[in-house]
Design goal:
There is one protein chain. By secondary structure, the protein is of the alpha+beta class. The chain is built from 5 helices and 11 strands. A hairpin with a 6-residue loop joins β7 and β8. The radius of gyration is 22 Å and the shape is globular.
C-alpha cells in the first residue's frame, strides 16, 4: 500500500533532476500470452498494457487464430517507413508500460513491446531459398534492415549522414528450436557520433518465407544537462529482460520437418557470431551542381 501511494501515476510536481528509482508494472503478475503461427506455438509473459497516455491502445491477436494458416500480409509500417513496397507484416502484439517517479513527480520513462510477422509479398518473394537456411536468413535480414532503416538520411549537405546505425551488439541465441539473434538499431543525430534511443530487436524464422520480429524500445523523459537520464533506468531494463527471457517457441510438425530438411542439406544451422554495422545510407546520390547564382543567393549576396 505504501508503494502504491508513493508511486501514484500522477504528475502534480515539477520534474527535477533529483535522482530516483521509478516504479512500473511488476513482472510477477505478468500473464502468459500465446500465438499460433503456421502450426507452431510462440509464447511469452508480459504485464497488462499500462501506457502513460490512455489513448495509446494495445494490439493483440487472438491466441487460437493461426495468422499464417492463410497469411494476409498487410503493408509493413506507415508510408515512408520502408524504402519500397516489397515487405508485408502482421502485428501480433503491442503493449506499452509507464514508469513513475515517487511522490507524484510523474512519468520518467516508458517501455514498449511490439511483435510482428515479417515476409515479402508474393510478387517480390525470394525464389528458391528458405528462411531456415541461416546464410539465406542473414541475406534476408540485410535486405530487410536496409529497406527499413538504411534508406533514411539527413538532408542537403548532410545527405551522407544516416538517421540510423546498426546492427550493433549482435548476439546469437540458442534457447529456441530455431536459430535466433538480437541486436540494436540506434537513432542517429546530425552529428554522426550522436547515437540515442536504440530499438532492441530479436529475430528468428518461423516459416520458410516469414520471420518473427520482437521489438523493444525505451523512451526516456527526464534528462540532465549532459543528456543523461536523471533516474535509475534499471527497472525498465529489468522488465524488458524478464519479458525477453520468457519467450518460448514450440514448432509444429510441418515446420519441424521443414527445418530438419534444411538442416540435413546445410549441416551447420548457426548464424554468424559477428555481424558488422551495415553501410548506410543506401540512397546517397551525387549532389546536383549548384550554379554560381544559386551560390550567391544562398550566401545572401
Amino acid at each position: 500500500m505504501y508503494n502504491f501511494l508513493k508511486y501514484l501515476p500522477l504528475e502534480w510536481r515539477l520534474r527535477d533532476d533529483n535522482y530516483c528509482v521509478p516504479q512500473g508494472p511488476s513482472f510477477s503478475s505478468a500473464s502468459k500470452i500465446g500465438f499460433t503461427l503456421a502450426g507452431s506455438r510462440l509464447q511469452l509473459r508480459a504485464p497488462g498494457h499500462r501506457p502513460l497516455r490512455k489513448p495509446v491502445k494495445e494490439k493483440r491477436i487472438l491466441s487460437n487464430f493461426d495468422v499464417l494458416h492463410e497469411p494476409q500480409l498487410g503493408r509493413y509500417g506507415t508510408k515512408g517507413v520502408m524504402a519500397n513496397d516489397y515487405w508485408g507484416g502482421i502485428s501480433l502484439l503491442y503493449r506499452r508500460w509507464a514508469f513513475y517517479g515517487p511522490w507524484m513527480t510523474g512519468c520518467k520513462g516508458e517501455l514498449s513491446l511490439g511483435i510482428s510477422i515479417i515476409g515479402r509479398f508474393d510478387k517480390y518473394a525470394f525464389q528458391n531459398i528458405s528462411f531456415f537456411n541461416p546464410k539465406a536468413f542473414e541475406m534476408v535480414l540485410i535486405r530487410y534492415l536496409n529497406d527499413r532503416y538504411g534508406h533514411a538520411n539527413w538532408e542537403d549537405e548532410l545527405s551522407h549522414v544516416p538517421r540510423y546505425h546498426g546492427p550493433v551488439d549482435w548476439l546469437c541465441h540458442h534457447h529456441l528450436p530455431v536459430f535466433s539473434a538480437s541486436f540494436k538499431i540506434y537513432n542517429r543525430g546530425e552529428d554522426p557520433n550522436y547515437l540515442v534511443l536504440p530499438d532492441y530487436l530479436f529475430v528468428f524464422p518461423i516459416t520458410e518465407k516469414h520471420f518473427v520480429r520482437v521489438s523493444f524500445w525505451q523512451d526516456i523523459y527526464s534528462f540532465d544537462k549532459n543528456n543523461k537520464p536523471t533516474f535509475d533506468v534499471s527497472p525498465i531494463q529489468e522488465l524488458q529482460d524478464n519479458i525477453f527471457n520468457s519467450i518460448s517457441l514450440e514448432l509444429g510438425p510441418e515446420t519441424q520437418a521443414a527445418y530438419d530438411k534444411v538442416k540435413e542439406e546445410v549441416g551447420d544451422m548457426r548464424l554468424s557470431e559477428e555481424f558488422a554495422p551495415l553501410k548506410w545510407p543506401t540512397n546517397v546520390y551525387p549532389p546536383e551542381p549548384v550554379s554560381e547564382m544559386q551560390q550567391r543567393l544562398r550566401a545572401g549576396s
